[in-house]
Amino acid sequence: MNGKITLASQESERARRTFVCVLSALFVLSTCFTKFNPLKALLAQKEFWSFIFTDFIPPYLGKWRALFASVMQTLYMAMGATGVAAALSLVLGFLGSPVICRRRPINILVRGFASLLRNIPVLVWAFILVAAFGIGTAVGVLALVISTVGELTRYFIETLDEVAGENIEALDATGAGTLPVIAQAIMPAAMPSLIAWFLYCVELNIRASTVLGMVGAGGIGLLMTGYIKQYNYAAASTTIAAVAALIIGVNLLADYLRKIIL
Fold first, then answer.
1. Which of 70-74, 115-119, 171-175 shows the lowest per-residue confidence on average (mean pLDDT)?
2. What's the number of CA atoms in the CB half-sphere (13 Å) around residue 65?
3. Which terminal residue of the chain, N or C, has fewer Cβ atoms less than 10 Å from its own Cβ?
């Protein structure tokens, strides 16, 4: 070691200053445009914490049966929607992968379809479906399926492209058909990554199903919204705690399964 300290170059230092200046200017412009006063928000903390500790705490546990039923409904919505979406996305993934399906128009069509689905927020799909079919758990599941198909199709295509190239070349040299190549070479190699993406989308859909319930798509969000509209904030705080516990539990389980699978 020569004991010298490497200093940042003038170009990188100038770039950092420029970034800080631009970021500061954007912050000032955004606060002026939205009329958001950070100082006023800090001074209003007293009312916020007073509301939390007066109305929200302690939580009310008297309606635990309805809470448990809503939690399970939310879990079923997320798992069911992700399972259906995974099956559809796997088929679309094969069609969208140029390594497997060597018809470029089909690849472009599938990728464009997936991009359309994933770039429209799930909450927008829920609003459209609730307006069309009314409130209910089935509407929430359908909204999650539509949104998740867009996400998983993209992830599956990327995964299949990564593992398919060398395997297909090796088996093509032996004269193997497309289906044997997929079943014996591609799927075994891609399965750990596909399962990991599936678990990731389960986590996302549990969070999303909570929000969907607040617009009438069933689950624990619907129960929470009902409590808030009734000004029963103590019961609403119980549902919020249940949502947090459910998400944390699913995250821990998903991490454990990833360690086993990967």
1. 171-175
2. 0
3. N
Query: What is the Cβ-side half-sphere exposure of residue 243, based on CA atoms within 13 angstroms?
Result: 23
Alpha carbon distances (Å) from 112 to 29, 82, 108, 148, 201: 35, 21, 6, 15, 20
Q: Are 239 and 67 in contact (CB under 8 A)?
A: yes
CATH superfamily of 64-261: MetI-like (1.10.3720.10)
Rounded to whole angstroms, the Cα distance separating 209 from 122 reads: 9
218: left (phi over 0), alpha (psi -120 to 50) or beta: left
Burial class (CB in 10 A: 0-12, 13-18, 19+), 256: exposed
Please state the rounded mean pLDDT for residues 207-218.
Answer: 77
- pLDDT greater at residue 41 or residue 16: 16
Q: Which residues contact 122 (CB under 8 A, 6 or more apart)?
A: 143, 144, 146, 147, 208, 211, 212
Which pLDDT score, from 0 to 100, does residue 12 have?
A: 77
Query: How far from the centroid of its chain's Cα atoms is residue 190's Cα?
Result: 21
CB 110 within 8 A of CB 95: yes
Question: Residue 149 in contact with residue 162, Cβ under 8 Å?
Answer: no
**Whole-number average pLDDT of the chain:** 81
Instruction: Give yes or no for a contact between 11 and 18, defined as CB atoms under 8 angstroms apart.
Output: no
In whole angstroms, what is the distance from residue 22 CA to residue 86 CA?
42
pLDDT tens figures, 33-76: 887 777 777 776 777 777 777 777 777 777 778 888 888 888 88
CA distance 100 to 118: 23
Provide the residue type at 133 as one letter: F
Compute the distance between CA of residue 195 and CA of residue 258 in angstroms, rounded to an integer.
Answer: 8
